[in-house]
Amino acid sequence: MYLLKVGSVFLLLLAIKHSLGSPTFSIDYKTDCFRKDGEVFRYISGSIHYSRIPRVYWKDRLLKMYMAGLNAIQTYIPWNYHEESPGRYSFSGDRDLEHFLQLAKDIGLLVILRPGPYICAEWDMGGLPAWLLKKEDIILRSSDPDYIAAVDKWMGKLLPMMKPFLYQNGGPIITVQVENEYGSYFACDYNYLRHLSKQFRSHLGDDVVLFTTDGAAVGYLKCGSLQGLYATVDFGAGGNVTAAFDAQRQAEPHGPLVNSEFYTGWLDHWGSHHSVVPTALVAKSLNEILAMGANVNLYMFIGGTNFGYWNGANSPYGPQPTSYDYDAPLTEAGDLTEKYFAIRDVIKFYRKIPDGPIPPTTPKYAYGTVVLKKLQTVSDALENLSFSGPVTSMYPQTFIELNQAFGFVLYRTALPFDCSKPTPLSSPLNGVHDRAYVSVDGVAVGILERNKVLTINVTGKAGSQLDILVENMGRINYGKYINDFKGLVSNMTLGTDTLCGWTMYSLSIDEAISEGLLSETTPTQEPQQEPQPAALSLPTFYQGSFIIPDGIPDLPQDTYIKLPEWRKGQVWINSINVGRYWPSRGPQVTLFVPANILSTAAPNNVTVLELEEAPCSSGSCSVEFISAPVLNATVQFDHKQYRRLFNKEDLL
Description:
Structural class: alpha+beta
Helix content: 10-25%
Number of helices: 12
């Protein structure tokens, strides 16, 4: 009798499940729309990159997006963020992708997933891991067997993790992008796209909607689209919306209209002004898109921060700054803006805005001035910074040959002859990638910079120690030059002679700071010679600390660090690498410091690596914590605009 009852309950549950039906999300080609659970559906989405926002703030940012009227979010998955070395995966802490997806679902947001393998995103190497370059002639984003083998292994790890989060399986993911803007890449390898499509299908099943994204022109869609992958386009404010969607219709005569990247702002480069797109223009174009019944994703809705070394670069070589504020509706720190409310007002015309209060802008606190003391130069600290020890070779090796992806490498050799008169030290093949700080016998003599400064003059005796500290400023993330090797990637010459006999030190600076391995030096170690040709000093570490009282409610709070009169370098706070500073080049002057890395229980340590010249000639130097960002300061000079607003063909 008991078994009969259990059996009856089981059959009843099956009947209920059958009557309710499994969740479905599909494309209706007859009525040119998406259908969610059989009903006509249109998404209004916003881009958020979990890799650019501390985990503790994911919920705050997602709630603000939900309260703006969005019913979906879009996010990239940077491969190199989760597999920094082959076979070693990280999905915890700020990299906990599954937690991020679950948060989105709990809040009521659907997810448009863009897992790459290439993502662009103004992220280092477009999300591809640098270790792929161990095969020097690898053709990235193609059917190159070595590239395909690495992609297959990565997707074999990632996509099974994503499958439970598909909408059909009760999760939030409604669509999944295959590759990214492939029509803008030179390879045009349809076999590569076919291979990816099969991989995605084998791991995710036949029911999930797979799509591609390309610029809104037939030329991009030619190489970027593939049968079985729904083709969408991207374009920004101020353009001809009808013409842009006409381009999509060339690839997809029927189905929903989709703008996968509607640009609310634009990216920045060091040496150019902070990009700003007028709120009124964004609101007007968004209204035009929604009035056509189209689906749209606002890129970015919040940009966030390129903490550490994660920023990318464009070609001709122009690295992006630490801030990825993007002039988005939510600022880098998640603050509500005029653009946020204008977009929300437009969305109100097309769907009901959720009831309830919008989470407020997080408070900021000005902790004031912090005095720093001078520690060691990079050269003095070499034993503590180079965990792997010296490597010798006849000619210089690249970062990848030295098994280093990011940061700095010190290259050392000796002057082969007397240079009593200024003698040109040159990188004739433009092989300094990306910026090099040169010294002779412990005296700073100049800076070499990719594409800009290929030669400096040096003096010294035969046998003098020549140090070249090379900084990786970020790998190219878009176009055909994404195979961006770092370090001294070609030979250096002194006069007409090729320099040989190099000793190279991979520097583990983040680890050394975390382990407290830096110490103070004595004044007697200071060189007496006046640096030439400009007032430069050796790359040097500085450190200080400040206390946040634990008796004051609501502290710690977010803040911004400003480095008055400092030139260029990197900052760590409580051993967390908060990014690069370069106020002498601009436009970014302050760095965002989220409250979660600060402490009221212990002193907060500030470590600065100044690469050019610290403002300490008259004694101690300091940094300042202020309550508002400075992202659009006067710049040293304006470079060519590497990527004009909304026109990606400039990088081809």
